[in-house]
From TrEMBL:
Stored InterPro entries: CD200R, Ig-like_dom, Ig-like_dom_sf, Ig-like_fold, Ig_V-set
Database matches in PANTHER family: CELL SURFACE GLYCOPROTEIN CD200 RECEPTOR 2, CELL SURFACE GLYCOPROTEIN OX2 RECEPTOR PRECURSOR
Lineage: Eukaryota, Metazoa, Chordata, Craniata, Vertebrata
Protein's UniProt name: MOR1B protein
GO cellular component: external side of plasma membrane
GO terms, biological process: regulation of neuroinflammatory response
Record GO terms (molecular function): signaling receptor activity
The family this protein is said to belong to: Belongs to the CD200R family.
Gene label: Cd200r1b_0
Length: 176
């Protein structure tokens, strides 16, 4: 999320026509088209963040700027060229790294939160804990995971929370 994504399409020597058909998980479909004989481009229902990276007569690559979860879905490039017709489909999945929050609750127990990640993050503790993580889903498809440290033994003064996620791993220590 937040970065640009570039989807390439099979470049051919002489392109007659190129169409990008986009079917997002949320919202309606959109398309970008280019017709070489008229040197004409067309866009239907696409947001400004989705556009040709270059001029389509030279390179039919698609660029999605400021990728958001709303961009998730299928992206199909269809090329008509002298060599034949070609299709390439991408399934775009957007990763949202969670924000790590570590604090002490009212009872002096460490609480670790992986806030608004996609997919849900995994939380573990460096010292063993009998905590069961709780998950809360959000409307934008992200998930907050909360884990409260509960020590098997006593006299634990300092502990470390580790958050694992496809977008990265983070850890933070706290003394309560």
């Amino acid at each position: 999320a937040g970065n640009s994504s570039v989807l390439t399409c099979t470049p051919k020597s002489v392109i007659t026509m190129v169409t990008w058909k986009i079917s997002p998980k949320v919202g309606g479909p959109c398309s970008l088209g280019y017709r070489a004989d008229l040197n004409q481009t067309d866009r239907t229902n696409c947001s400004d963040s989705i556009n040709w990276k270059f001029t389509p007569d030279r390179d039919p690559t698609l660029e999605i700027r400021q990728v958001a979860t709303a961009h998730e879905g299928n992206y199909t490039c269809e090329v008509v060229a002298a060599e034949g017709n070609f299709h390439k489909t991408y399934h775009l999945t957007v990763l949202v790294p969670p924000r790590l929050t570590l604090y002490c609750d009212d009872h002096g127990n460490p609480v670790c939160e992986a806030v608004a990640g996609k997919p849900a993050a995994e939380i573990s503790w460096v010292l063993e804990s009998n905590s069961t993580p709780m998950q809360e889903g959000h409307d934008d498809g992200t998930v907050t995971v909360l884990s409260k440290f509960t020590a098997y033994g006593t006299n634990v003064t300092n502990t470390t929370c580790t958050v694992s996620h496809p977008a990265g791993n983070w850890s933070q220590s706290i003394a309560c």
